[in-house]
Here is the input.
Amino acid sequence: MGLTATRTRPAAPQREVPKSRGGRPTKTAAIERDQRLIEVATRLFLDRGFDATSLDAVAEAARVSKPTVYARYGDKRGLFAAVLRREIARWLAPLSAAAETQLSSAADISVEQRLVEIGREMLSFTCGPDAVAFSRMMTSQAINFPDVAKLGKEEGWLKAVATTARFFDHLVAQGALDVEDTTIAAEVFLDVVVGHTHRMATFGTTLEPKSAEKRMRSAIKLFLAGALGPADRVRDAAKGPTRRRSSR
Here is the structure.
């Protein structure tokens, strides 16, 4: 998937919420209502931005009462946090899936190629238009609502680091990586592989897919220069000496 690809969101279903005998929505209907609210809110936040999106507009678009929205989320910040939490879970899913796939990949696949596959997935979802839009909103609201920034860090960055660190733990156990602290290694890896490209996309400077891929591969080579374990050092040595540019 290219870095500039857009994701088409399905229109939120418009239907009445079934009521129980007591007049309150059934449990299933309440869950469907909340999902519809989040879908509508996500679309409005992406289309209009944080400041221009009101709870009244969300309630009208989702066809629910305004008191229901206020009772469920308290205020716009609470609604945005709920939207952000779900979006982060969507962004992390490809990373987790890629890590799991590489854990079960054939033993003869190099560490570099495994990391390239993970890096490619990370570029796709962290530099996509939705991720960039939410990153901008979080940045703009961080000063006024530090708890939103905290949510982004704890639910997004720290979980991505933890997922990557678990993958590195596996590689260390295999002797494929030689690092003392896999959490620090994961932080460095994420930052050098996709951090710059994501920041540039957030600033409005999106790299072409080929350029982003080239940068990602170079960053992984630099990362591995100090992290390859004994097994992969032996493999690289068997390939023979590599050409180096003259410093003169």
